[in-house]
Write a structure and sequence with these properties.
- This protein is of the alpha+beta class.
- It folds into two domains: about 100 residues, Phosphorylase Kinase, domain 1 (2-Layer Sandwich), CATH 3.30.200.20; about 190 residues, Orthogonal Bundle (Transferase(Phosphotransferase), domain 1).
- A five-stranded antiparallel sheet has the order 1-2-3-5-4. A two-stranded antiparallel sheet has the order 6-7. Strands 8-9 form a two-stranded antiparallel ribbon.
- Strand 6 and strand 7 form a beta hairpin.
- The chain is extended, with a radius of gyration of 41 Å.
- About 35% of the residues are buried.
- The C terminus is likely disordered.
Length: about 375
Amino acid sequence: MSADQPATVRELAQLGFADAVEIGRGGFGVVFRCHEVSVGRTVAVKLLHTDLDATNRARFFREGRAMGRLSGHPNVVEVLQVGETPGGRPFIVMPFLARGSLADRIERDGPVPWPDATTMGVRLAGALESAHRAGTLHRDVKPGNVLLSDYGEAQLTDFGIARMQGGFETQTGQFTGSVAYSAPDVLEGEPPSPRSDVYALGATLFTVVAGYAAFARKPDEELLAQVLRIGRSPVPDLRAAGIPDDLCAVLEHAMAKKATDRPQMTEFGKALQEVQQRAGLAVAEMAVPAAAPTAPADPITVRAAPPPPPPLQPTERAEPAPPATAGRRWPRTLAIAVLVLLLIGVATLLVVIGVRAVSTSVGAGEAREAVTAAVGHDRLP
């Protein structure tokens, strides 16, 4: 127990987090498992170092708000609260995940089977793409920052905290993050970008399927030598270890030395989905915000419903749809029409015959009267 821990525990109790027990410590600070009294649940409270300057303190709260906006994503650890202790230490409150991190699982059980690793990769790609669309970079993707939920779901945590850890100096300036999972361009002093997060996710998945980091620091290796090796050496080949060729190719593409040679995050996720599809596996879903612009339609990932019909204009009227049985009524309608026509024809014929009979009778009477007038009525029969 550190000298200041009793004071920290008392401060947490004042904030409503009782029974604080330290469960982790790192470059960013310390993590306590606590009982949140107000809602009766177990939480993890992450306390940062007290030596943050004003800029980093403001950045911490800004990143905390960004993490909060991502909390609805199924593969991002939920942020329950962001604040500051009475002693001035910034803190983040998250659910307590008893299964620990992906790094813990690898250390305990060894490599993860590659089909499970591809599912993790697709879902984490969706989490990172969602963060990028919200304007947030992770900057420190690694197995230790992927936690496992109570249901075994991989969830990212610690967005942006790498910016506040006070890293080491390289030849081109200060660097923050984990060297073995950092892109060569970042190690050379370039600013982090979405494609450096792609590299870090590729390096993380390499570790998941291999059981070790592609560019882990060797015994007695100087830091500068490790950095140079990351920038110059090819990604170790895992094909001999039974990893499919197409998955190896996808990881190598993600870990390309130049940022411009790497895929975008959605392309990386889709490439992993295609590996699953070719292997006959269930294709994992890559969750991204529904309202955000997406890539062109893809038979693997797009399950969109057809768009609703456009609204009617003021001058238009919606015509009622014909009943479903209309097509079966036409023979009866035709028969009725033919019968009506026949009746009309018969009636017309009778009228014509009657008119002719009357005309003939009238003509005969007129002739008889004419003859009578000429020769006398008594001479006629």
